[in-house]
């Protein structure tokens, strides 16, 4: 969009009636890579509804999760804080029962803060932020909850199958009660819950709805109606990945349609994946590294601090307020959602939030407020300032061996992070390393230790 | 049934037209305990179709699998040999691909021998006898095959979820080709395959159909239409176990109905479980030993050589030939099926078969031909002669620690195997121990070593 058109659109927005408190719908996918949507360059996928959502608002091309893995990414979404500060620096263990600590008691989450502002709140789908009493969705600000606590479940039987000697367990709950929805395909089941919830809402009574799809996280499976949309000649992993994403896309379509049908007040829809696509062997059907997901054009996978691990599809759609076709220049992050949404709801971010209010950037053509960003995971670190990024240790993805050292890149010149400029730029390295160290030193030290056994 | 009535029934059978070669249907369940059917004393289950099948023919109360675990039990069924002699002494590893050795090339199986006699043959369901080319169903005598190679799969998604670092894999195949039947409930899917197969058959063209249900093996899951048949107040494990068995029972009903509808020639139906109910933790949803299955009134579980591990529901139904209401006195075993069926088909057992032709026993009121029987599994041994049984080492079930020593019981006086008479009966112990040693020495020595990594 040209600057001139942008200003015109903003003027039209300004002429609209004074903003009511908007509804918020957050759609969070799981292990969807940057290259796993049509509007992000995937030519073999069909994601018309996601593409339309992006075309109707802001499609970020420099949007980042605050972690390259699941639980910490979600903790940042709901708290607006770097994962360590939310005390969820690691993937939380998945196990039966209700005793996995995660989000702490009294954490000031986005839904809890919105409730104070008069919002209704609901969460459907994957939680993975703890199943101990104080960590559950309804203890963390959600009025309603339907979904699973663990990192993933079978798409049909809603069982979690661990790899660590823990028995298979069923994991699907509505509020405090177990619910069996055997043979219902998870993505469709969650879409149904979401659209029914939207259908029950009334204009003038704002809500926040968090829909966290298990898709496209393994175990990869989809009904024939989705697989048949893609040619049998495709690579099997990729074909299934496309099918699983096709179901997500249909679900997004049904959510958008439900919003339109319900004639609600103004509704903000935010869409993000939790981390990049994975190469884990266990995601594959045949004992090979999984190759269904794509982080193209970025390097690295889930669990890595190369761009592929954390640069993600991020879409922010607010009809009449965010101009259609916007591709914001500058770096946005998951932590920004909380303070921004609280602002739009008429409130403000609580103390300790790391995220930034991006209203001016996306609503009024202002400058991206972020100058520097940090990541830390399992001994890997990264800091980004402008186009420069310094990695401290690196690896390909989750479970692959790490190499130790410093790696400096200029993402503008070398988006593939292929050339290490650390030796050539010692002064910049020293500066960025010192920034990274300062940030790491600011984190609560105890949470740098593994908080829980990994359960993925 | 009184002896007088029995003789009358036999006379009626004798007056029937000269026997054609009958069809054979073998229904094999998985981890169904002795106490897991109404006709075997379960008061909380509803298995009217299985009960009717039993009432219409022979219901064995002293029927035994030749192994307390899955793969060896199935090897004995198809070869008529003790598991070690069929070179499947252990549970076979479950893994993706087609390279798990199991049944050996050239093994003379029941379906292969029946084919020589002009039979059509088909297998639907669980195989678990190897996925290497030479071990597959179609290399071992089956014309048609639809099912899974591994020890179990999810009932809806047909994926195998290992506990040993092997990735999740899809495991459902028709002949050589993978088939996706996501969200179809396994038991119903197999019943459909079986009834369609029966519907395609013609009188005078005999067939053997092997239907191996995954049920009631974990992971325990069933549609609401089955769970709702049992009160919510029941123990959750047991309620689900009953529901899973209710689906099997409906499937048995549909198979019997298909036989009646098809107006086929005379059809023999044999029904057996592969081993006793399990106590494994991984079968449970909540990290406790599984208590859904029942081996009542017997002691021990799957993987044990107490009666509960191998004494099983065994039903043999042949309308007009086996008298209704028969409860044969004496010990029958899985290995007997092959030689008996081959006899009834007009052939005879190949060399090396350990099983016995039980025709005289079940058709003509003759004496049970077996005087002695042996078991061996993972260092446990057992020998049975009449009511006396000697155990060499013992354990509660699969994965529980074994105790070393000799344990002698008289099953008539002490069916619960509670009192060790070894010290009181040294002469009998010595005799039976020597019999057991002789039998063990007769087994191919190399197969006493673990043949494959366990995959259960």
List the topology elements.
The structure is a homodimer of 456-residue chains.
Chain A: H1 3-15, E1 23-29, H2 48-55, E2 58-60, E3 63-64, H3 70-79, H4 110-116, E4 120-126, E5 144-148, E6 159-160, E7 169-170, E8 173-174, E9 177-178, H5 186-200, E10 207-212, H6 224-227, H7 236-261, E11 267-273, H8 307-310, E12 314-318, E13 332-333, H9 337-344, H10 359-363, E14 372-377, E15 380-385, E16 388-394, E17 403-410, H11 426-442
Parallel strand pairs in A: 1-10, 1-11, 3-13, 4-5, 4-10
Antiparallel strand pairs in A: 2-12, 5-8, 6-7, 8-9, 11-12, 14-15, 15-16, 16-17
User: How many runs of DSSP E, i.e. beta strands of chain A?
Assistant: 17
String of helices and strands of chain A: HEHEEHHEEEEEEHEHHEHEEHHEEEEH
Approximate strand percentage of chain A: 15-25%
> On the 0-100 scale, what is the average pLDDT of chain A?
92
**Overall 3D geometry of chain A?**
globular
Low-confidence stretches of chain A: 7-18, 448-456
């Amino acid at each position: 969009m040209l600057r001139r058109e942008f200003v015109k659109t903003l003027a039209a927005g300004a002429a609209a009636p004074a903003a009511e408190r908007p509804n918020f719908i957050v759609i969070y996918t799981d292990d969807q890579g940057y290259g796993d949507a049509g509007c992000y360059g995937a030519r073999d996928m069909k994601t018309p509804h996601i593409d339309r959502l992006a075309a109707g608002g802001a499609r970020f091309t420099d949007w980042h999760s605050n972690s390259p893995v699941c639980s910490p990414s979600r903790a940042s979404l709901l708290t607006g804080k770097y994962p360590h500060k939310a005390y969820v620096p690691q993937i939380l263990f998945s196990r039966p029962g209700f005793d996995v600590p995660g989000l702490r008691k009294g954490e000031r989450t986005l839904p809890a803060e919105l409730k104070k502002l008069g919002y209704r709140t609901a969460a459907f789908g994957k939680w993975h932020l703890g199943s101990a009493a104080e960590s559950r969705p309804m203890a963390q600000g959600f009025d309603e909850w339907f979904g699973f606590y663990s990192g993933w479940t079978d798409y049909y039987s809603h069982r979690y199958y661990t790899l660590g000697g823990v028995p298979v367990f069923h994991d699907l709950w509505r509020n405090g009660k177990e619910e069996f929805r055997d043979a219902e395909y998870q993505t469709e089941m969650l879409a149904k819950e979401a659209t029914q919830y939207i259908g029950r809402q009334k204009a003038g009574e704002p809500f926040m709805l968090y829909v966290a799809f298990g898709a496209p996280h393994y175990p990869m499976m989809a009904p024939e109606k989705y697989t048949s949309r893609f040619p049998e000649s495709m690579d099997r992993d990729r074909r299934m990945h496309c099918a699983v994403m096709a179901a997500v896309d249909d679900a997004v379509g049904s959510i958008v349609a439900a919003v339109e049908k319900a004639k609600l007040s103004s509704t903000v829809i935010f869409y993000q994946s939790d981390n990049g696509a994975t190469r884990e062997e266990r995601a594959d059907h045949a004992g090979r590294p999984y190759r269904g997901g794509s982080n193209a054009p970025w390097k690295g996978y889930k669990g890595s601090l190369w761009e592929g691990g954390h640069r993600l599809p991020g879409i922010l759609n607010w009809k009449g307020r965010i101009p259609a076709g916007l591709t914001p220049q500058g770096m946005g992050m998951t932590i920004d959602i909380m303070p921004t949404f609280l602002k739009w709801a008429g409130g403000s971010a609580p103390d300790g939030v790391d995220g930034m209010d991006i209203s001016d950037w996306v609503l009024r053509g202002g400058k991206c407020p972020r100058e520097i960003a940090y990541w830390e995971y399992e001994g890997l670190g990264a800091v980004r300032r402008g186009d420069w990024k310094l990695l401290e240790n690196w690896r390909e993805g989750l479970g692959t061996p790490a190499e130790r050292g410093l790696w400096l890149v200029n993402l503008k010149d070398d988006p593939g992070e292929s050339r290490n400029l650390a030796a050539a730029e010692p002064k910049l390295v020293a500066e960025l390393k010192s920034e990274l160290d300062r940030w790491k030193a600011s984190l609560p030290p105890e949470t740098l230790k593994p908080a829980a056994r990994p359960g993925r």
